[in-house]
Sequence to fold (222 residues):
Amino acid sequence: DGYIEKDGEGYLKFVHDKVREAAYNLIPDSDKKQFHYHLGKVLYSFCDGKDVGDTIFLIASQINHGKEWILGDKDLSIAIAELNMKAGEKALDGCDHKTAYSYFGAALSLLPNDHWRSHYDLSLRLNFLMAGAAKSCCQYVEAEQILRRISERCRCFEDKLPSYYLLSQIFLIQRRVVDAYDTCSFVLLQLGETIPDLVAFDAVKTVVKDTLTMYQAVDNDG
Fold:
């Protein structure tokens, strides 16, 4: 009746934003959350397993309105957690760390209480991604807390290494040089390296000089 028209690609759209807003306002407020959730589920069913580009943000943001229904289905919870993780990674690709942080948080909130046991790989990856996003958003305290939680939950030392590296970076950003040194020393000791208790300044200069000479030799050979 003159409220909807086709765009250049043949898709239907409202003739004006005001018409769209009026139609949306016809939905009772108590039903809007469920409306967004079902819209997200429909989009998800069509796009599951496909590379949908930036559309993944629309799908995730819509379906996340239905958290209370998602949590009632264990399989769906994991699937939507993975969807949010992909949306977060997509946001990271565009250097939108704040949006990425939001999606990673949504993903973690959908995991079961025993997720470190039942979904170890997903838990490890999600926590590390969220810590990285928190660091990029200058939320250093939260990033440190997440990384320490990872180190407590990891099944092997190798799984902890990326977290220790990121933690050292956070310490350096905050000028917590002693904490960064202690962290790196701990990691090296765990890897079988010997760390001297005291390092003389002259020895440091010698190591730097020898290292630069080595780099120069390699560069000349190249």
